[in-house]
Amino acid sequence: MSSKRPSDAEIQQQYNKYKNELQQVAQKIGELESEVEEHKLVIDSISPLEPDRKCFRMVGGVLVERTVKEVLPALETNYNGIKQVIEQLLNSYKRKEQEFQQFQKEHKIQVVSKQ
C-alpha cells in the first residue's frame, strides 16, 4: 500500500506548528541578544575600574557585595556563554526555516498577504 496523503487540516496544523516554532526561536534570540548587550555594557563599565574596588552583583534575587576582580570573570564567562547559545539558536532557526520552506514546496503552499 502507498502512504496516504495528509489531509488539508493536517497540513494546516503542520504549517502552523512550523510558524510557531520559528516565532518562538526568533523571540528567544531577541531576548538573549538584549541580555548579551546588557552584559557587554556592564563589562565595558567596570573593566577600567580598579580590581579591588567594590561592586554589587545580583545573585538569585539577593544583592551581594563583591570586588571588580571577582565579578568581571563571571560576567565575561556569562557573556561568552550567551553568545554561544545565540549562535546555536541561529543555526537551529536556519535549519527549521529550511525544513519549513521544503514543507511548503512539497505541499505547494503559497502565502498570500492580506492588505
TrEMBL record:
The keyword Coiled coil applies. CDD domains: Prefoldin_2. Keywords: Chaperone, Coiled coil. Residues 8-42, 79-106 form a coiled coil. InterPro entries: PFD2, PFD_beta-like, Prefoldin. GO terms for cellular component: prefoldin complex. One of its GO terms (molecular function) is unfolded protein binding. Belongs to the prefoldin subunit beta family. This is Prefoldin beta-like protein. It comes from Phascolomyces articulosus.
